[in-house]
Amino acid sequence: MANVPIKKIKDPATGTHSLFEDLENLFAQIRERAYSFFQQRGESGAGEMDDWLRAEREFLWTPPADLIDGGDEFRIRLAAPGFEANEIEVTALSGAIIVRAESKQEREKQEGKCLVSEFSSRKLYRRFDLPVAIDPEKMTAKLEQGVLRIAASKAEPVQAKTISVTSGG
């Protein structure tokens, strides 16, 4: 079982800049590819959503996952076959958990003519929006036999504070 590092972000305004830049670049690539499908279809009006989804599938893999509310913690089980722990990045925000991974497959030189090759680079992206806040400091992520397991403790509820008001006179 390999530990997966967790990027803990307490202030989303300052800590997610590179994440959003990466996503914007990825979506730009998807947009360009979807537009090329649109052009190949003769720029007809029907099928734009299919073009987008087809392009998205070329760039991203959305693996199956479970999100379980275990009372005092959330548990996530996410299929990540073929990924190593060092290729996975888990980002913890107070209200969400983001999993990104990239696997680069290098083609082996072989003698002979390759008839089928299905090895390629893959990118994985999943975002889990949570119904209540978590404590990013109390989170673990482990990769075991191609399954990423994340445990995130719920944050302690903020206690209301009563303040007495006095008059100035």
List keywords for this structure.
4-stranded mixed sheet; alpha+beta; 5-stranded antiparallel sheet; 169 residues; 24% helix; Immunoglobulin-like; single chain
Write a brief caption for the model.
The protein is 24% helix and 34% strand. The chain is an alpha+beta fold and 169 residues long.
Task: Explain what you see.
By secondary structure, this protein is an alpha+beta fold. The chain has one domain (2-106, 120-154): Immunoglobulin-like (Sandwich), CATH 2.60.40.790. Helix content is 24%, strand content 34%. The strands form two sheets. A five-stranded antiparallel β-sheet has the order 1-8-9-4-3, with no helix packed on it. Strand 5 (88-92) and strand 6 form a beta hairpin.
Helix content: 10-25%
Separation of termini? 67 Å
Q: Name the helix and strand elements from N-terminus to C-terminus, one letter apiece.
A: EEHHHEEEEEEE
How are strands sequenced across the largest beta sheet?
Answer: 1-8-9-4-3
Unreliable runs, pLDDT <50, ≥5 residues? none
- Beta percentage is 25-35%
